[in-house]
Structures are given as C-alpha cells and as structure tokens.
Amino acid sequence: MKNMTIYLLGILSAFLFFYGFFPISTRSNNINNIPPSKINNVSLKQHYFYNQSTFKKTVLIVIDALRLDFVDTKYMPLTTNLLQENGCSNEIKVEIPTVTLPRIKALTVGNIPQFIDLVLNLASTESLSDSIIHSAYENGKNIVFYGDDTWLKLFPNKFSRHEGVSSFFVRDFTEVDLNVTRNVHAELKNDDWDIMILHYLGLDHIGHVYGPFSSLVPTKLNEMDNIIHTVFEKLSSKGEEVLLMVTGDHGMKDSGGHGGSTYSETHVPLVIVGHHCENTFLSQSDIPVNLAVLMGVKIPSSSIGKVHRKLLQTNEDKYLYDLYYNSIILQQKESCCHDLFDEASSHYIKYLNNNTDSISTLKAIELYEKFLEKINDNLANGSIKQKLSSLFIALSVLLNVIVIIYSQILSKQNKKYLLFQKIVMLAIIVVQFNIPEHLLVFSVMISILIIILFSNIYFLIPFNFHLTFSYLNFFIFISILHPLTFISSSYVEEEHQYWYFFNTLFIFFNCVTFSKMKSKYDILTTVVCLAMFRFLRRMNSTGDKWAMYPDLSGWLLKDENYFYYQLLFLVGLVSVLVAQYVLLLPKRPWFIHFISIATLCLIFIYKQRETSVTLGRIVWFLVFVQLIMTYNSSKIIPWILIATLLLKPYNVILVPYCVLCSLYFSKHLSSTQDMVLYHTILANMLYFTQGHSNSLASVDVSVGYIGLSEYQPIFVIAQVLCHIQTFPVLCHLLIFNNKHIKQGEVWNVLFCNKLYVYLVTCIVTFLFRHHLFIWSVFAPKLFIEFVHILFLCIEYLLVQICAMAHISIGLNNFLYRTKIVFFKKPTVY
C-alpha cells in the first residue's frame, strides 16, 4: 500500500497524455447552412435550383461490414443487373476507426468523427444535433427506420416508425436481419413515408465470428441481394421515381473483425440505383452532402464533404449553384483559400449576368472544385487540436514516476523526502487538467518537473552497473529494447515477431545449457516447450502483413475438420484440468476439484452453440463460487476457468502451455525480478499467440455477451477486457503463486515496465504525430498500451482490496476468539 501514491501518479500522467493527445473537435457549430438566395446582390433562383426532390421515395440500406469486393456478379447478381440498367457503383474511402458509431456519424453528418468514438462504440451514445436526418426531418419528410438501434440513440424522435435491433449479439446471424426484413415488407405497402433507412447486421456478425471467407458469407450476401432487388422493383413498379442507395458503414478485415486500417476495412461500395450517374471515388464524409443535394434538403452545417458532379449528373446551372452552396458552408469553417473562392465567385457572377459566357462557367466550376478540394483537405487534417502542454507535462511526470519506482526496486526502501515531490507532481497534474493552456503557467510547471527529475536521477539512481551475462540482464535487455523498436511502424504492426523470437531464443538457450549439464529431464521439457510453441504460433495469423494467410484456426473452423476442432478443444480442457490439479495440489478439498470439473464440462457444452444465456450464467455462477471459496488464497483457479470460458475453443490449449512454462522455468529463476520479467515476456508472447495484434480489429467483441440476454455496457466491456488481458493476468497470478517472491517488489517491477513501455510509446507517437500512419498504427498502439496500464491498475486495486478483506476477516476471528478466552467462566473443581 505504501507505493499506491506513486502508482496513482503514474496512471494519472498516463491519462493526461491520453487526454491531451487524442482528437478533440475544435470546430464551431454556428454555421449558416441555409441555401443561398443571392451572391453579391445578384439573385439566385433558390427555389428553382433547390426545390423538393425529384425522387418520391429515397431508400438508404446500410449493410454492416459490406466490403468493396462483396458487390459483384458472383455474390450479388441481381444488384449488379440493376446497376447496369440505371445506376452506378462507387468506391468509398472510410476513415479510421472503422467501427459502427463513428461511421454512422460520418454517413449522416459528413465530418470526420474522433478516434475516441471507438470507446463510445461499446458504451452509451449521445444524440446528434445536426445531420442529414435533421435536415430531412425539418423539411417535413417522413422517415422510417429499421435496424441497428444505434440510430435510435443518435436520432431520437426523428423517425415516424421504427424498430431497433441490438448490434451486440454477434452470434445472431439470421433473426437480427429477419426482424428488419419483416418490417420492410410491411412498409412497401405503405405510401406515407418519404425516406426509409435500413441497417442490416448479420454480415458483420458472421465476420466477427468466422471471418469474410466463411461459407455463411455468400448465403448472407445472396439474402441482401434479394432484399435490394425486391425493394427497388416493388417501389418502381408504382411508377414513382425511386432513389436507392446501398453502402457499408465499414469493411471487414481478411482475418475477420474490423476497427483497423487495412484496405478491406477502409474501402466500401456505394451502390446507387434509380439515378443515372457515373462510377467515381469519394470519401464517406461526402455522402451526406450529395444525398442532401439529391433530396433537395439543407446540407448539414457540420459537414466537411464536397459535391461530386459524376454522382449528381445535373446541368451546369444547377451544379454551379450546388458548388457555391457547398463552398459558402465550408469557407465559414476555414480561413484558407479565400482567394480561390472569391475568384470562382466572380466568374459565377459573370455567368449569371451573361448566361452565354461559357468560359466563365467552366472557369467558375474549375475554381470552385479546386477550392472545395483544398479546403476539404485542410478541414480533414485540422479537425483536431492536441493540447501540447498536457503532453509535455504528462511525459515529465511519467519519467519522474519511472525513476522513483526504479530507485525503489534497487534500494528496496521508501524515501520519505519523496512525499513532497509526489504532492507537487499531483498538484501540477490537477492544475493541467483544469486550466486552459497558458505559456507562463506551463513554463513554471515544466521547470519544476525538470528540476525534480534531475534531482531524482542524481540522488536515487546509482551508476555502478556491472555488465555480466545472467537471466536478469537478458530480460532487462529485452524489456528496454522492446518499445524502442516502435520507432519503426512495421515493428508496431508486427510486434508479435519480437516476442516470438525472444521466447524461442530463451527456450533454446536453456536447452543448450541443460545439454551441457546432461540433464535429460530438463532437455526433454525444453524441447517439448519449443515444439509446442512452434505448433501454437501457427494457431492464429496476426500482425498486418501476414494476417490474411491461412492458419490452423481457419483450418479447424472448416466443416470437414470439425472432428479435429473438437478433439483439440477436449485436449485443451483435459490439460486445463491437469494444470489446475497441479496448481491446487491434491491436499485441497475434493469439492473444489469437483466444481472445477463441473465448470469445465459446462463450458464444453456451452461452446457447442454459445447461444444459451442460462448456461453462460451458470458457468459464471460457478466461477464466483470458486472465488468465494478461495477468498483467503490465490485466485488463479477461478481466473483459469474465466479464461477457458472466454477463449476460443482452439485457444484453450494456450492456458496449460502458460502454466507449464511458468512452473518449469520458474525453478531456474532465482530472484523476484527474474520471475516478473520472464512472466512479462511469456504474457506478451501468449497475448499475440491468442490472435491479438496492435490493430483494434483484432479485439473479439463476441466474448462480451456470454450470459447476457440484453445489452449491458458494463458487463460487455468487462468481459471483452478480461479476454484481452487473459494471459497478462494469468502470468501475474502465477508469479504470486510462488511463495518466495516479494509482492511489493513484484508490483514495482510490473508498473516500472508498463510505464516505461507507455512512456516510449508516447514519445514515439508524439514525434510521429504528423506521420502518414499516425491514426492507423501509432494511435491504436498508444490506446492499447493505455488499456494495459489501466487494467494493471485495476488488478493492483483488487489485490489490495482482497488483502484488506482477508486482514479484516482475520482480525475479526482473532477478536472473537479473544473475547471467548477473556469472558469464559472459570471451571470449578
């Protein structure tokens, strides 16, 4: 408990950098978006150019995770036939993060949502105040909606009829779409609506569970193809002008899931049927602008998109008006390029005064398009503002915290004079969170932190290093080198290779050492560990460059290999049971072993379909029973059961492998520091072997809904985080399972290591904040490292709470026994 203050400073400074770095919108919403009626006192035919839509019905179909390559004659023949008759197929560039909530915002508002929206994608969502939906609603159009209930949270009270479906039960591939289609058939008989929006989720769910190459994908695409064809044919058969638009909110990674920046995640189709247009390339933020023009409603004031002539296919008069309208909205948001705007407007006025001046027409169109291109780029790049003072303060405090923790690892004592420094640093963080940027205040605070840093280095850090080969120095070298590799974006994307290499090197080094000692048992064990690792690393393809290549998990998921899939799962469960027995030892009560066996059997049954809410809850109940029964001992057995429940069946075998490596190699490690650093390497290696990467697309959200009958954000996020942290937590528990380790020193090494990795990640991210890959590579890595630190802090707090509860129970038992002794009546003989 004595180091809680310094750990608190570490997490606060980590959050300060996170808070200062990630995008915060700085654009004003006080934008006039009323269609113009004049330009420099020259009248415009507003009502003629911007009247009611020529389309009687407008239908927008969003198919979640619809990749660009899914719309072709093979998967969607009916849709491609409609395109050839009257329509176009456009390629849409989607900004990251490629998750649903920010993509819906981009589709309806026309701006670039913030990176932090990916957190809101799992939590609650706020309603929007400006969008194409608001424009249509204010124009008196009746809108009906069916699909992902995120729309209902973003646009409350804007739909005359609606029915939302939950997007979070990712193993529902059929009912979630049938509920939407059922309403579609009813609405096709009604004539009182103007706009119908549909958001289908089944394809996305298949991608999360089985990936884009599953046999279920063609069937689902064929279902969507039939729906698109039915909607257009039935509406157009009434003799009405119908505008049908089909797009995806984001794509799907080759290995399944989404959230990252690969081509298949960031490029989706925009299919337009019922409107003569040409195929083109545009940004997702351009869709609301062009849709507003086509429907004859106001362009959203928050939009940064631009109109496209190939998409609109209007005459020069109308297109010039649309360009001018689009331009006056954007020029209110950005001070650049006014010369281009003024020159274009002067040519437009010349054209209005002389309709036969074709040169002015072409010049005006050219200049307006050039203006929109430039200002759009400026708005896209400058839509965020980072608080640089927060970044520097956070880095300075982080560095001080790491120096202090490192000094405690070396000296093993708490310096009392550090109390004043902690109070000063805490005060600086509080001030930085609560005041706007001010150069003088920032200069004073950063100067104080630099003075504290140099004094800590001088007084606390000894400089008598001895470079001798040992396990500890080997582990320290690996730990120091690790984050320094992040200077290369490729090393961030392929970080798993780093841990695979050094884990293999460590095992091989031990094998050579034991061969010299002629220890056959040790040689055999290391060879088994090496061979098992070679098998397990082929289980899941991860990283960026090779994630799409075949792996064992993909092979096991094929229907013809179902027997081997179940066989590996059973071997994993039996191995887990053996590992638990070894950890528990036979001395433990028989009913603890019985509960473990019963829980594993229920997990096996549950994993056959993973749709039984009741069975999932029973498993969680048995896990909590184990937690209660082990209140005064290690929580490693309950955590192993949690891991077995949350992991994919083919990944369960990783749990006994982790226990085997820990129990075996721990015997050859002498110090607490050796133990902690080795288990850190083991945890990182297994984290990537599990299938994770530094892309948010690798996060498996499907595990968040075990035992839930309705969406509950706290439980969903908790289960997803537990799945992510499966092996880091397991390795920490295995460390504490060793009786000779010192708990305080363990936490010091863990926090020092994690904060050091986070510090270097922050520095690299800051240096590359203008890099091409900042939002696709470095920012996700920073986000992931922050989650690791946050979870480590939660771990620490839970351990301290359990320790205090154990002490409290022990104290109560002691007082109770003392009371009996003192107040017991004396025996009379």
From TrEMBL:
<dbReference type="InterPro" id="IPR045687">
    <property type="entry name" value="PIGG/GPI7_C"/>
</dbReference>
<keyword id="KW-0812">Transmembrane</keyword>
<feature type="transmembrane region" description="Helical">
    <location>
        <begin position="676"/>
        <end position="693"/>
    </location>
</feature>
<dbReference type="GO" id="GO:0051267">
    <property type="term" value="F:CP2 mannose-ethanolamine phosphotransferase activity"/>
</dbReference>
<keyword id="KW-0256">Endoplasmic reticulum</keyword>
<feature type="transmembrane region" description="Helical">
    <location>
        <begin position="713"/>
        <end position="735"/>
    </location>
</feature>
<protein>
    <recommendedName>
        <fullName>GPI ethanolamine phosphate transferase 2 C-terminal domain-containing protein</fullName>
    </recommendedName>
</protein>
<feature type="transmembrane region" description="Helical">
    <location>
        <begin position="613"/>
        <end position="631"/>
    </location>
</feature>
<dbReference type="InterPro" id="IPR017850">
    <property type="entry name" value="Alkaline_phosphatase_core_sf"/>
</dbReference>
<feature type="transmembrane region" description="Helical">
    <location>
        <begin position="388"/>
        <end position="406"/>
    </location>
</feature>
<feature type="transmembrane region" description="Helical">
    <location>
        <begin position="590"/>
        <end position="606"/>
    </location>
</feature>
<feature type="transmembrane region" description="Helical">
    <location>
        <begin position="755"/>
        <end position="777"/>
    </location>
</feature>
<keyword id="KW-0808">Transferase</keyword>
<feature type="transmembrane region" description="Helical">
    <location>
        <begin position="498"/>
        <end position="515"/>
    </location>
</feature>
<dbReference type="InterPro" id="IPR039527">
    <property type="entry name" value="PIGG/GPI7"/>
</dbReference>
<dbReference type="InterPro" id="IPR037674">
    <property type="entry name" value="PIG-G_N"/>
</dbReference>
<keyword id="KW-0472">Membrane</keyword>
<keyword id="KW-0325">Glycoprotein</keyword>
<feature type="transmembrane region" description="Helical">
    <location>
        <begin position="441"/>
        <end position="459"/>
    </location>
</feature>
<feature type="transmembrane region" description="Helical">
    <location>
        <begin position="418"/>
        <end position="435"/>
    </location>
</feature>
<keyword id="KW-1133">Transmembrane helix</keyword>
<feature type="domain" description="GPI ethanolamine phosphate transferase 2 C-terminal">
    <location>
        <begin position="444"/>
        <end position="607"/>
    </location>
</feature>
<comment type="similarity">
    <text>Belongs to the PIGG/PIGN/PIGO family. PIGG subfamily.</text>
</comment>
<feature type="transmembrane region" description="Helical">
    <location>
        <begin position="637"/>
        <end position="664"/>
    </location>
</feature>
<feature type="transmembrane region" description="Helical">
    <location>
        <begin position="562"/>
        <end position="584"/>
    </location>
</feature>
<comment type="pathway">
    <text>Glycolipid biosynthesis; glycosylphosphatidylinositol-anchor biosynthesis.</text>
</comment>
<dbReference type="GO" id="GO:0005789">
    <property type="term" value="C:endoplasmic reticulum membrane"/>
</dbReference>
<dbReference type="GO" id="GO:0006506">
    <property type="term" value="P:GPI anchor biosynthetic process"/>
</dbReference>
<feature type="transmembrane region" description="Helical">
    <location>
        <begin position="471"/>
        <end position="492"/>
    </location>
</feature>
<dbReference type="Pfam" id="PF19316">
    <property type="entry name" value="PIGO_PIGG"/>
</dbReference>
<keyword id="KW-0337">GPI-anchor biosynthesis</keyword>
<feature type="transmembrane region" description="Helical">
    <location>
        <begin position="789"/>
        <end position="815"/>
    </location>
</feature>
<dbReference type="Pfam" id="PF01663">
    <property type="entry name" value="Phosphodiest"/>
</dbReference>
<dbReference type="InterPro" id="IPR002591">
    <property type="entry name" value="Phosphodiest/P_Trfase"/>
</dbReference>
